[in-house]
Amino acid sequence: MRFQIKHEIKGRLRVHVIRKRMSFSQADTLQYYLMGLTGVQKVKVQNRTCDAIIEYDGDRGEILKELQRFSYQQTEVPADYLKNSGREMNQYYWDKLVNRVILHYGTKLFLPISVRDVIATVKSVKYVCEGVRTLLKGKIEVPVLDGTAIGVSVFRGDYSTASSVMFLLGIGEILEEWTHKKSVEDLARSMSLNISKVWLIREGKEELTELTAVNSGDRVVVHMGNVIPFDGDVVAGEAMVNQASLTGESNPVRKIEGGYAYAGTVVEEGEITICVKEVNGSSKYEKIMTMIEDSEKLKSSLEGRAAHLADRLVPYTFAGTGLVWLLTRNTTKALSVLMVDFSCALKLAMPLTVLSAIREASTYDITVKGGKYLEAMAEADTIVFDKTGTLTKAQPTVVDVVSFNGQSSDELLRIAACLEEHFPHSMAKAVVEKAVERNLVHEELHSKVEYIVAHGIYSTIEGKEVVIGSHHFVFEDEHAVIPEGKQELFDQLPEQYSHLYMAIEGKLAAVICIEDPLRKEAPEVIRRLKQCGISKVVMMTGDSDRIASTIAHKVGVDEYYSEVLPEDKAKFVENEKKSGRRVIMIGDGINDSPALSEASVGIAISDGAEIAREIADVTISADDLYEIATLKRLSDAMVRRINKNYHMIVGINTGLILLGVAGVFQPTMSALLHNTSTILISLKSMENLLDTGTKL
């Protein structure tokens, strides 16, 4: 690609692409390519000027070489990236804004007064009619206020004031619509960038494949605990599917052969095979957009209170207008009250603050599904941690495989990996990764694998029953026994490790020793959470009391509970809420899902089970716990900004009303300052709440 350097300082380049014009897709393609270069931190491509601003900390010469190699034809860009870039939307609203300003002032400069008056009268009909329609619905809200102010101005022959007010309202509407859509789309883009894999059936075998490699007509197997990635027909299997994300219904729905499965829903029990209908029609981006725009239940109570207060204040504005007119008999002073209302600013600034907070959270690899969860986070005083994969590292490692049946450790590990690879839990992943590390290739020799939540796995291999899981599951539920002469070996198992037991035909075959090291940041994060107002920190785990007590002592929790079942975790959270506490639950596995659902705020960590991420109110993709403290700090800052905005809006608008009544400001000036302050507060609400790169 041919280009020239227009301007340069250390760490920043402005280059001009030598071409007559650049389309939206070409600008997005270039931006995608540049963002993928090593050392490039930030890129902004301007399609109208054909310029690209590149901020970097890498090798300047290498970046310029890569820029020379760039070709639109040879650069592959994901379709969703081009479709949802937001570039076309931003230009549309910018053009709309500029055209509105040019038309308004052009009319003032070039048209005679009589024509301008007629135009103002015609335009006023829209606002007056909207006000009347609102009144007919039995409501006294903002449209009534606007219609009255404009109608009275036209009736008095003050066409200039009416025209200015309508112009300012129009500008405000464009900016409100633009900022809201931009916030929503920025948020949706940041939430939809997760890459996932699926089990694709090829030549009768399951293969773990990138989501992007799946085509319409392909068959995909969805195991228990996983999200259904595409819409499609159920062609095999049976499952109970949680469709809450789609329908809001919490009860799972039975899906059998001949049924239809929807993307974004979760398999709670069983497994199904779906024939993919289309790969783009129900994209995650579109579902997220729908969730953000349509889920009123996800709005914070602070937002709701602001909106209700805004509407309740309208009758008082009318009352104030009438009172001023009765006392002064001065229509101009009365109009000054009418031109100022609290509603616009309250209704715009509050939601923008929440959207901005959710967007900012995404920059820390935190996905928040609604404003109400940020508010609940700010109010929370109790936090409950799962242990495995949460307080401990998300990737535990296998340190030993102890044989009890004479088979080699490699053969036993191969069998275990064959069963465990179907289930998204950190300990299962540890087994699979160890098998891969030892180059233990396994064929799918087992029958259908059944997963018993919080217990283990049951299957058959070559006609032999195989169970793998916890001590409770293998020995108490399945009644497995230790082979004769192996008791001493069993008693000498190293206590510093977690143990995964595997039995074949009712006899213990192997014990897999797994090291699950504590996250180094865990003690510091808990200390900082307490500094942020968390008064009670609890750890709950299915592990033995021996392991639980060691971890609890190291991290500094206030309470810990060992050998608990999923229902125990959920019951604990429920009881804490009944006692008046606001509870945060943090987990990563299928067994954490009931508690995540029950908590005031459920947080799923890192790359845990998909059902946990789907059910959770917040998901954290970063592989450390610092983001939990960051989220708490961000939530507190959001609530402070909302309260600050409220006081600013009330203070500024009250001041404008008083100055208007005193005759200091004319109605046009009051309207101008009111709308200007609304826009400035709204723009301020879109700024980051935390310093860039801040982690608590």
| Beta-strand content | 15-25%
Structural class by secondary-structure content? alpha+beta
Q: Oligomeric state of the chains?
A: single chain
Biggest sheet details: 7 strands, antiparallel
Distance between the termini: 44 Å
Quickly count the domains.
5
If you had to describe this structure to a student in words, what would you say it looks like?
- There is one protein chain.
- With 696 residues, the protein is α+β, with helices and mostly antiparallel strands.
- It folds into five domains: 75 residues, 2-Layer Sandwich (Alpha-Beta Plaits), CATH 3.30.70.100; 203 residues, no CATH class; 86 residues, Calcium-transporting ATPase, cytoplasmic transduction domain A (Distorted Sandwich); 132 residues, HAD superfamily/HAD-like (Rossmann fold, 3-Layer(aba) Sandwich); 119 residues, Calcium-transporting ATPase, cytoplasmic domain N (3-Layer(aba) Sandwich).
- Helix content is 50%, strand content 20%.
- The protein is built from 25 helices and 24 strands.
- β20, α20 and β21 form a beta-alpha-beta unit.
- α10 runs antiparallel to α12.
- The chain is elongated.
